[in-house]
Amino acid sequence: QAVAYFLERRFLMTDGDDVSTTGSVTGDENTEIRMEGALTGVRSNVTEERDMDHGPGSDPDRIDPEHVALGSGCGSLLSNVLQSLCNAGDAVLIPAPYRAAFDNDVRSIACCAPFPVPVSDMRKGPSKEDLEAAALRAERLDQRVRVLLLTNPHDPTGVVYRPSSLRRVVAWARERKMHVIVDEVYALSVHEDGGPIPPFKSVVRVLRNSLRDDVHMLYSLSKDFGAGGFRFGVLYSQNTLLLRALANLNIFSGVSHPMQRVVSEILTDDQFVESDARAQLRWSYTLCARKLEEMVVPFFPATGGLFLYADFSGLLPEFSFDGEERFAALVRDAARVVLTPGSSMHDKRPGMFRLCYAWVTPDVLEIAMERLSYLVTKIRRNHGNWDALDLSTLSDVT
Predict the structure, then answer these.
(1) CA distances (Å), 120 to each of 116, 129, 299, in order?
(2) Which of 222, 267, 347, 383 would be 228's cystine partner, CB 3.0–4.6 Å?
(3) φ/ψ (deg, to 5) at 10
(4) Is this model's pTM higher than 0.85 or not?
């Protein structure tokens, strides 16, 4: 019940809906009834009235709690969903670059094959041509293409997909009778500044809450709330057969009653959810973007997520993944800054790195960016003579 309330307010509300409050929702009598069912599993009077009026899942303005599944994080839920929908060896298309952890989530238990999809324009998302070309390549390898896995906002670029892009890829997948899983784990970590880039809209909202049996949305507390240790993930799906399968599989990765109680209090506290975290993210993003511009290092302008995706290829000792690895090691050892290399996320271009600006406090972030800037300056002053770059000559970086 608590998760359904949260999803309605944060993922389903339409333009013009007022989600602001002066405090926690527990002051509302109907909501108190719904929250009481969050732990016990007893359906509330509110939900019963909803079902009598509209039928299960047919109200475009409501999230039916019966269509919500819980699990110990998005990784376990994704694995269980794939185990339910796919056969071993089936291909899961994932627009690349993508979060490195997906490889393990897709392979380990479900035994599916993550299949990177090179994207011609990351700002617009995968085109039908991008997806079709990847699907045909997988089929030539005798892999059945069963699922398309998206992340929105995108990891690692921080790009927010336009509603038209989401509708386009869902239409393509439906033509091929595929399932679409949309990981929206960064949904609340959006910090747009009113510029030309569109704000985030959930696939639930874009499709007017008509997911049918083939579109499924994942969410967890690990990123937006910085609570990865809670191991609390959410799947919203209108596929009742899938939800029944998960009810069996989730016995191995369920969420305890005490944790359900804690999370229900968090998700229904509107004042807490609407805190100033986005302003802090915007400050950190702006700091990193400004320093990268000063370094003359290109990057993807981001409006969501917790990171920037930057192109350091011009600083590599050689334009190769070996050169990428050598650059990453130098940044780590000399500046004590850890960057995620693009090769680990299936980027085909050497020199791309993900820089996470939300992992540390603002004062530490400022120090890290100053060190990185100074190291970049020293690399350029050496005119590519990497033999002269070692810890003895770079001791002043830190």
Answers:
(1) 13, 9, 16
(2) 222
(3) -100, -20
(4) yes
